[in-house]
Amino acid sequence: MTLTSEITKISREFDGEAAVYVKDLATGVRCTHNGATPFYLASVVKVPVMITAFQLVDAGSLSLDEELEVTKDDLRDGSHEVRQAGRFAMRELIRLMMTHSDNGATDLVLKRIGIESVNAMLGRAGIDGFRELTTMLEVRRRVFGGVDSRGATLSPAQYYELWAARSMTRRGRLLGEYVAAGRAFRSREIEAAFDAYYATEANSAPVEAVGALLEALVSGRLASPASTAVMLEIMKQCETGRRRLTSGLQAAVPLAHKTGTQHRRACDAGILYVQPDRPVVVVVCTKSFVELGDAERVMAKVGKKVYDLLATAAAAAAPAPTSPMTAPVATETSAEAAASPPSRRAGD
Questions:
Q1: DSSP secondary structure letter of residue 246
Q2: Each residue of 137-163: pLDDT tens digit?
Q3: Pairing of strands 30-33, 38-40
Q4: Is 225 helix (H, G, I), strand (E, B) or coil?
Q5: How many Cβ atoms are within 10 Å of 213's Cβ, its own excluded?
Q6: For the chain, what percent of residues have pLDDT higher than 70?
Q7: What phi and psi values does residue 154 have, to the nearest 5 degrees?
Q8: Residues paired with residue 148 on neighbouring β-strands, in sequence order
Q9: Which residues, in sequence order, are CB contacts of 237 under 8 Å at separation 6+?
Q10: β-strand partners of 22
Q11: Cα(first)–Cα(last) distance of the chain, in Å?
């Protein structure tokens, strides 16, 4: 049983399409499935946004204490704290963006640093494969503008209501009201607009490219040691996607990650510490599924399999502890038992 064969098996059993990238940074060993195929990243794009912000902090052109004012035009679906007028420090906006995937916080950060700087950062870092990255608001403009050209000119509050409507039927009815179409748009028209938007490959990248970005981050090649440590700590506090990579892991196993979810698209990308000093990059993106739960189970299986196999291998390779009295020998069975934790209960 190899990690590659197990990843391939998990992916093939999925009723949809999956892309997986795994790299053990201690050994350089990696495995991929659909690794070079662009997948829509959804909120995983917030990782390069965070990195760009911290690069500006390191350069002295941005302060984490700087406060930004929230107005009604900053309203976004998927916002938690950033839902009303007020002032937020940059450090809090970044935290909300990464731990709660707050779209309002994300676009406020982007308003300050500029989306162009994020795309430029990826180029400077030599990370190939990322397509055009946009603001969260621009995603909504493009999707609903694809249904009706007037859908690209709605107010942030209208996009909030459209995106918050879980039913495609409800979205079609609301969009018809907003653009004065005189009719409700059908669910299949909304579905077609999403598919057309995904086909542009905006906010997309191969999982290999996402993995290369995460490797550069954890290796300290993208920011100062202090900023790198802060970013990884923020990612370890991620509250979203509890049924994904973390689902099969013991609570004590660190995972610095970011999730992303959109219509029939879902990802989880992060750094799994199979040992305190042994980071493993794991990226899973999925598409064309019917039920989100099916996609999340694929991610959970990948996370558990990566940990079980690589933690076991690391434990087996580690020198056995010795004492003046005895030198106990670790058997394969005892090593596996120590490295295979009980499953963590999945959250919401």
A1: G
A2: 999 999 999 999 999 999 999 999 998
A3: unpaired
A4: helix
A5: 25
A6: 89
A7: -80, 165
A8: none
A9: 95, 98, 99
A10: 31, 282
A11: 32
Half-sphere exposure of residue 311: CA atoms within 13 angstroms, side-chain side: 23
CA–CA gap between residue 39 and residue 295 (Å, rounded): 14
The span from the CA of 196 to the CA of 263, in Å, is 12
Q: Find tokens 């999730």 and name the residue.
A: 259
Band of pLDDT at residue 292, cut at 50, 70 and 90 = very high
Cα gap 318→275, rounded to integer Å: 11
- What residue ranges do the domains of the chain occupy? 3-133+202-316+331-339, 136-199
Residue 117 and residue 25: Cα distance in Å, rounded?
Answer: 28
Burial class of residue 117, CB neighbours in 10 A (0-12, 13-18, 19+):
middle
* Model pTM score: 0.89
Name the CATH architecture for the domain at 3-133+202-316+331-339: 3-Layer(aba) Sandwich (3.40)
Q: Which of 25-39, 101-115, 301-315 has the lowest mean pLDDT?
A: 301-315
Beta bridge partners of 279: 273
pLDDT tens-digit readout, 244-282:
999 989 888 999 999 999 999 999 999 999 999 999 999
| pLDDT of amino acid 317 | 65
Closest by Cα among 202, 179, 175 to 189? 175
